[in-house]
Amino acid sequence: xxxxxxxxxxxxxxxxxxxxxxxxxxxxxxxxxxxxxxxxxxxxxxxxxxxxxxxxxxxxxxxxxxxxxxxxxxxxxxxxxxxxxxxxxxxxxxxxxxxxxxxxxxxxxxxxxxxxxxxxxxxxxxxxxxxxxxxxxxxxxxxxxxxxxxxxxxxxxxxxxxxxxxxxxxxxxxxxxxxxxxxxxxxxxxxxxxxxxxxxxxxxxxxxxxxxxxxxxxxxxxxxxxxxx
Length: 229
Prior knowledge:
The structure is a single chain. The protein is α/β, with parallel strands linked by helices. It has two domains: 17-67 and 158-222, CATH 3.30.190.20; 73-156, Rossmann fold, CATH 3.40.50. It contains eight helices and nine strands. The protein has helices at residues 4-13, 21-30, 79-88, 96-103, 119-122, 126-129, 147-156, 180-198; strands spanning 39-46, 58-62, 73-76, 92-94, 111-114, 158-162, 168-175, 208-215, 221-222. The protein has a four-stranded antiparallel β-sheet with strand order 7-1-8-9. Strands 4-3-5 form a three-stranded parallel β-sheet, sandwiched between helices. A two-stranded antiparallel ribbon has the order 2-6. The protein is globular. It starts with a helix and ends in a 7-residue tail after the last strand.
């Protein structure tokens, strides 16, 4: 059953219509009445069922305001790139021995970056890394020879955007404690990324059917997008 706190939130906000993101951020923050710093989350429903093909989006967005979360980043690379990875802030760095550790189920990280030359060794571990969403991917910038850039972006606020089979996308754009302007910049970065993704597909109609914003323990509000795409 809904808690007393949640019932009070619904009572106060049930009449709020869909609105622009600038106005809804305030409502979402007002609903963050728990003792912890709640996340501010977005959810989208996209028009992924097309006659000729199904739309599957998988990309990353670099949030200019960060995420408010720390990401444990691991790097698999050659000896000559290990120092570069460490200086960039990687939490775990290794080569062949680290690959063996991963093979044996040691997955003590949230993001895995791999140099191009070492990817052939990691590619054999798809059954281990794939289900966890940890397999490096060139499209996501996690298979690269620019290890420094990849690590810095992963640590500073990079978030994956990926829709499920029903066309739903969910991601966090920060915390309640963030200034409104920071949350707004992160929101706009997500929208810009999705707009660019649309150009990669032959889509009839709009890409985004609906968009919502909520907090970890709050209720959701429908976002009125300023333009269709």
